[in-house]
């Protein structure tokens, strides 16, 4: 059984982390499969929206601590440092793909999002969570610091103080608390999570995909750009979108007072 299940249904691709017996803990195989799947989807023009979720009752409960423990038993400190540096860098291409991808990525969270599970969810563009879901950064409980780009995304989403609170205390937070902090976009009833996520994904998949990609670039670059550079990028992105078919369709639909039929082109 694969550690990641990939399903393409029309214009929506769903990636399901598939180790429910261990709350979808992030194995090395899962990393490789997720990296490959994102690379494939990035260049698949039929896919216009991506959903990332977990099999069973949980989103993802962090790294595979049992796997880490097995390695620690037979190696000294210098070897351990080299191994974990490689292990962490091995995760980075996934984050680069998620940031670079022109298609919107939705995290659909049920149950636990812990450790790297928070990191993966935060790296997505939108998060929809069931009301019973909970989030915990949790790294302090195993004596280490966050990884998986959470130290980049969380301070920008919820602020330094709240990120430090999550990091230093390792407390649990409900989906609504995370929504109030600014990380989670939508909180829904548990029995409505699948259907509400499907509605959101279908809406995005029917949108102007090229525009979404430029909008992602514009918003994420704003976190680092100075004022002049950001305004220059705004102009470039708008002009590039204006040269596409979807812009022409959108303008004509507005004038005709009808719903636009975007193709992503």
Question: With helices defined by DSSP (H or I, 4 residues minimum), what is the helix count?
Answer: 11
CATH topology tier name of the largest domain: 2-enoyl-CoA Hydratase, Chain A, domain 1
CATH superfamily of the largest domain: 2-enoyl-CoA Hydratase, Chain A, domain 1
Q: Output the strand order for the largest sheet.
A: 1-2-3-4-6-9
Number of domains as seen in the coordinates: 2
Beta-strand percentage range: 5-15%
Instruction: Give the CATH class of the largest domain.
Output: Alpha Beta
**Shape verdict:** globular
Order of helices and strands: EEHEHHEEHEEHHEHEHHHH
Q: Which class best fits the helix and strand makeup?
A: alpha/beta
Taking the alpha carbons of the first and last residues, their distance comes to 36 Å
Q: Based on the structure given, which CATH architecture of the largest domain is correct?
A: Alpha-Beta Complex
Radius of gyration: 19 Å
Task: Tell me, rounded to a whole number, the average pLDDT.
Answer: 95
Helix residue percentage: 40-55%
Given as residue ranges, the uncertain stretches (5+ residues, pLDDT < 50) are none
Would you write up a description of this structure?
It is a single chain. This protein is α/β, with parallel strands linked by helices and 265 residues long. The protein folds into 2 domains: 202 residues, Alpha-Beta Complex (2-enoyl-CoA Hydratase, Chain A, domain 1); 48 residues, Lyase 2-enoyl-coa Hydratase, Chain  A, domain 2 (Orthogonal Bundle). Helices cover 51% and strands 15% of the residues. The protein has 11 helices and 9 strands. It is globular, with a radius of gyration of 19 Å. The two termini are 36 Å apart. The mean pLDDT is 95.
């Amino acid at each position: 059984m694969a550690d990641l299940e990939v399903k393409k249904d029309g214009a929506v691709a769903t990636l399901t982390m598939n180790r429910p017996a261990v709350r979808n803990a992030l194995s090395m195989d899962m990393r490789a499969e997720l990296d490959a799947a994102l690379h494939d989807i990035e260049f698949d023009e039929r896919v216009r929206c991506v959903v990332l979720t977990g099999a069973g009752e949980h989103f993802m409960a962090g790294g595979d601590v049992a796997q880490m423990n097995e390695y620690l038993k037979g190696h000294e400190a210098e070897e351990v440092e080299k191994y974990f540096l490689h292990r962490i860098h091995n995760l980075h291409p996934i984050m680069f793909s998620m940031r670079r991808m022109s298609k919107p990525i939705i995290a659909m969270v049920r149950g636990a999002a812990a450790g790297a599970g928070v990191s993966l969810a935060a790296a997505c563009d939108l998060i929809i969570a069931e009301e019973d879901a909970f989030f915990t950064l949790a790294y302090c409980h195993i004596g280490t610091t966050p990884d998986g780009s959470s130290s980049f995304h969380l301070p920008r989403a919820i602020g330094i103080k709240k990120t430090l609170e999550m990091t230093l205390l390792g407390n649990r937070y409900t989906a609504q608390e995370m929504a109030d902090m600014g990380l989670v976009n939508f909180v829904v009833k548990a029995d409505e999570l699948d259907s509400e996520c499907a509605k959101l994904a279908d809406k995005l998949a029917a949108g102007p995909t090229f525009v979404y990609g430029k909008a992602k670039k514009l918003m994420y670059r704003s976190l680092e750009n100075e004022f002049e550079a950001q305004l220059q990028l705004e102009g470039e992105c708008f002009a590039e979108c204006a040269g596409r078919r979807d812009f022409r369709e959108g303008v004509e639909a507005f004038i005709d007072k009808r719903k636009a039929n975007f193709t992503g082109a």
